[in-house]
From TrEMBL:
Transmembrane segments: none annotated. This is 3-oxoacyl-ACP reductase. It comes from Acrocarpospora phusangensis. Coiled coil: none annotated. SUPFAM superfamilies: NAD(P)-binding Rossmann-fold domains (SSF51735). GO terms for molecular function: oxidoreductase activity. Belongs to the short-chain dehydrogenases/reductases (SDR) family. The gene is fabG1.
Length: 250
């Protein structure tokens, strides 16, 4: 791990999968709010370093931590070294292949469940003793609108994301007595660097189903997560918050 001097902070906020995409924006926003960000990544050292450098350049606190969120020993060791964590943002994800139902395998399902059920469980169990001792904590699961849309050829991904929100609902009841809130944020299609090849026609087609007539930005998601990480969300738990311009409504 590498870190700058955190100084005064609200505590440590873990953001998984933060070397790029939404995770990078979430890490940046939480750091700006005064959290000492534990920026997790698994493979992209250059990307994680660049994100951390940007955060430090603004005078905020960040620690870079490389570990595989699906590996029990790596999670245990990294989070023990990190010390007490006040906020967890479960953002890490793996490949999301399109697989027709007649070809999808149980291993395809397990691959998705590893990121969206196993990883959040491993992380929760690692941070829970300190959260219980502190009497406060925030668990924020990054879900997806696809659980409501049911996108074709994404049965493994969609079912795993739905299971992730199942954890949110159960954990919110179990952990509420300890002052720990658990919520799910469900982004819609928020263009980031991996969508660089998307066409105007694809954006137009997506927007046909939204109430707001424009694509969302990563900051739209990061702002909602920042709210859920803050003391202002103290009476919000067990919820799904869709950040998709009204593509889905609950």
């Amino acid at each position: 791990m590498t870190a700058n001097t955190p100084g005064t902070s609200l505590g440590t906020a873990l953001v998984t999968g933060a070397s790029r995409g939404l995770g990078a924006f979430i890490a940046d926003r939480l750091a700006a709010d005064g959290w000492h960000v534990l920026l997790n990544y698994a493979h992209d050292t250059a990307g994680a370093t660049a994100v951390a450098d940007r955060i430090r350049a603004r005078g905020h606190a960040v620690t870079v931590s490389r570990f595989d969120v699906t590996d029990e020993e790596q999670v245990r060791r990294a989070l023990a070294e990190a010390g007490p964590i006040a906020v967890v943002v479960n953002n890490a994800t793996g490949p999301q292949p399109l697989i027709p139902v007649h070809e999808v395998t149980w291993d395809d399902h397990l691959n998705q469940l590893s990121f969206f059920v196993k990883a959040p469980l491993l992380i929760l169990q690692a941070v829970l003793p300190d959260m219980r001792a502190a009497g406060v904590g925030r668990i924020i699961n990054v879900g997806s609108e696809v659980t409501d849309l049911g996108n074709r050829e994404m049965s493994a991904y969609v079912s795993a994301k739905a299971a992730m929100h199942g954890l949110t609902r159960v954990w919110s009841r179990e952990l509420g007595p300890y002052g720990i809130t658990v919520n799910t944020v469900e982004p819609g299609w928020i263009p980031v660097e991996r969508h660089a090849g998307s066409t105007d026609e694809e954006f137009t087609e997506y927007l046909k189903g939204t109430a707001l007539p424009h694509m969302g930005k990563p900051a739209d998601v990061a702002d909602v997560i920042a709210f859920l990480a803050s003391a202002d969300s103290r009476y919000v738990t067990g919820q799904r918050l869709a950040v998709n311009g009204g593509k889905t409504m609950t």
